[in-house]
Amino acid sequence: MQVTLIRPDMGHPADRLGVDESRMEPLQLAVLAALTPPDVEVALVDDRIDRIPYDRPTDLVGITVETFTARRAYQIAAEYRGRGVKVVMGGFHATLAPEEVAEHADAVYSGDAEGGWAEVLADAAAGRLRPRYDFPTGVGQGGVLPRRELFRGKDYLPLTLVQFSRGCPHGCHFCAIGAFFGQRVHTRPVAEVVAELEAARPRFVFFVDDNIVADRAAAKELFRALIPLKLRWVSQASTDMTEDGELMELMARSGCLGHVIGFESLDPATLRGMGKQVNLAAGAGYRRAIEVLRDHGLQTWAAFTVGHDEDTVDSVRALVDFALAQKFTFAAFNTLVPYPGTPLYRRLAREGRLLLGGRWWLHPDFRFNHATFVPARMTPEQLTEVAWEARARFASLGSRVRRFLEPRTNMRTPLRMALYWGYNGLFRRELVRKQGMTLGIQDGAGPGRAL
Fold first, then answer.
1. Reported confidence tier of residue 16, pLDDT bands at 50, 70, 90
2. Residue 193 near residue 223, CB atoms below 8 Å
3. Helix 380-395 and helix 313-325: axis angle, to 10°?
């Protein structure tokens, strides 16, 4: 039996491949391949890099679907199904919007792959593929090592992806992670993670955990085990980690370079409204938490969301002032996105504030980074423009030079200096290329906007 696993692109022009330079290994497909019985042949196709081999013989196609890749995933599925090939779709979007996905697939898989991927393959081989497979979320991988050989020859960032935990306990109303995992956190045995790292022998690691410090006791156990490996790694974490001195010390000793941290907003009312109570404990302006991060030499990739009901054009500009003053290694000013299945989406739908018919991810008029709902204190056009202004201002050359001059983080070592300039340059190029792009295959020359 031959199975083809596909990671769709968000979108790209019809005459060339994707615009995403920051593409990382599709870890979920390598895990899926590892869960596949050895007598089944597996091919991995990454739509960001590879031309989709529609004419290559295959018995089953598996597509992982996220909301931003749904339109492209459906285009790919239609081509295969038109050739008589069965298609199964899974992933976040398939779990949060299964009825929609069912319109484009022969089978929809919800939940974690570890629960029933073998059952799907057995059913497909026997010609009895069911339209729905529903399994719970839980501990990842179950002792298998991702089949990283499937990444060879593909142009990914020199960063090895590993997962220790899944889920996050915080109930942010806009977050698809919370909707998918139900605010539960599942951790793998530390010994399994160490064995995977020893097998991969990576230079740099990105722990793709939604919040690597969500279970502090488990995180400390992991960090202690990482110290002898002498790795350099980054992940995603929450501000409350700075309350635990032992956790921070172990983190720094284990080789952590920094984290993506969801600051989201400076306004306490906004944080309460979105359900991110954990950030309120960080103190006014996050200054205490930021000082702890600096004291441990950790570079910070700060994530903000703009478009909440309390936000105005002026408050977004003040957010940029704050990010510049803190000299963050990087900051993202993400236009608030109502993902299906989230409390935010349901509320905006009830209030009649969703644009583009609600299913913005499928609408031909959708443009990346444009507002998909009516904000409370701005027009959609104002939100789109001020968010672009924030990104452009933070990515400017003057900003990059001034932010670099932070001795405890960005200037701490030659490695951190190189990471600073490399990532900021990459982000600026991505910012220009993706702004305003459509989803799926595009007929025109492609997106882009001048800084």
1. low
2. no
3. 20
167 sits in the region (left: phi over 0; alpha: psi -120 to 50; else beta) called left
Instruction: Give the position of tokens 């938490």.
Output: 289
- What pTM does this model have? 0.92
Lowest mean pLDDT among 149-158, 171-180, 189-198, 228-237: 171-180
| Model confidence pLDDT, tens digit, residues 265-288 | 999 999 999 988 888 876 667 989
Cα–Cα distance for residue pair 67/73, rounded to 1 Å: 10
Q: Which CA distances in Å does 241 have to 219, 226, 247, 435?
A: 10, 18, 7, 33
Instruction: Tell me the CA distances in angstroms from 211 to 181, 195, 261, 378, 429, one per residue in order.
Output: 12, 21, 9, 31, 27
Q: CATH: 3.30.1330.60, 3.40.605.10, 3.40.50.1820, 3.80.30.20. Which one for 148-335+379-433? A: 3.80.30.20
Which helix (H) or strand (E) segment holds residue 124: the answer is helix 117-125
**3-state DSSP call for residue 292?**
helix
Domain at 2-134, CATH homologous superfamily: Cobalamin-binding domain (3.40.50.280)
Q: Are 235 and 206 in contact (CB under 8 A)?
A: yes
The ranges assigned to domains in the chain are 2-134, 148-335+379-433
Look at the block and give the residue holding tokens 């204190």.
377
Distance CA 110, CA 129 (A): 15
DSSP E strands, 17-85 = 41-46, 60-64
